[in-house]
TrEMBL record:
This is Uncharacterized protein. Residues 1-25 are annotated as: Disordered. The chain crosses the membrane at residues 61-83, 95-119, 131-149, 170-198. It comes from Nocardioides conyzicola. The keyword Membrane applies. Keywords: Membrane, Transmembrane, Transmembrane helix.
Length: 207
């Protein structure tokens, strides 16, 4: 009687032994994870101090600078999700990550325009560009759901992206109901607990 052994499916959270003499880093996503945390905390502090509705050139510049770093961190997060197939192996998963990257690029363009003071939301073109900010955050929320459903990441890494990426559905209604000051406090807490911690999870993730 022959016995066949089927290898267990690969898990992205289990350390793999690298071949002897390999130069591959043990934590290849460390820099991107730290960028996520740095951007989240920076933008969170800005929201706490200046609120979520900046007025004046200084506040607008600070908001654009900190939120811009945060957006770069999100781009880094997308590359990690793509490399680890966090949404699955299918073409649709890869397409959605690319599509979200496009949304983020336009959102960053809006951030830069606001920061240098050239945007004018009274004009349809600038208003459409500004809309990519909330659209990109909504896209990240759906990505968080998909990561949890796909189950390619394990432990805290499986569900923490959903916690982090619920920023939009939580902070935006808070701003509408209670104003910029309260929303700024909520944004600060949510960014630090959500994306701040997620960045550390990504930084410690092994290949």
């Amino acid at each position: 009687m022959s016995v066949q052994h089927t290898p267990a499916p690969a898990r992205s959270d289990v350390p793999r032994r690298l071949p002897s003499g390999s130069t591959a880093p043990a934590r290849p996503f460390f820099k991107r994870g730290m960028l996520i945390t740095t951007g989240a905390v920076a933008w969170g502090v800005d929201s706490l101090v200046l609120g979520t509705d900046p007025s004046g050139s200084f506040e607008e510049a600070m908001s654009s600078l900190t939120s811009g770093v945060f957006q770069l961190g999100l781009l880094g997060l997308l590359t990690v999700l793509y490399a680890t197939r966090a949404l699955g192996d299918g073409r649709l998963a890869r397409f959605f990550l690319r599509f979200e990257a496009v949304l983020l690029f336009f959102a960053i363009g809006s951030t830069v325009a606001d920061g240098i003071g050239v945007s004018n939301l009274d004009q349809p073109g600038w208003a459409m560009l500004d809309a990519f900010w909330p659209l990109s955050m909504l896209g990240m929320f759906f990505i968080g759901i998909r990561i949890a459903v796909a189950g390619r990441w394990h432990g805290k890494a499986r569900f923490w992206p959903l916690i982090a990426e619920s920023w939009g559905p939580i902070v935006v209604p808070t701003f509408g109901l209670f104003g910029s000051t309260v929303a700024g406090v909520v944004s600060f807490v949510h960014l630090c607990v959500g994306y701040g911690v997620l960045g550390q999870i990504v930084a410690r993730k092994e290949p």
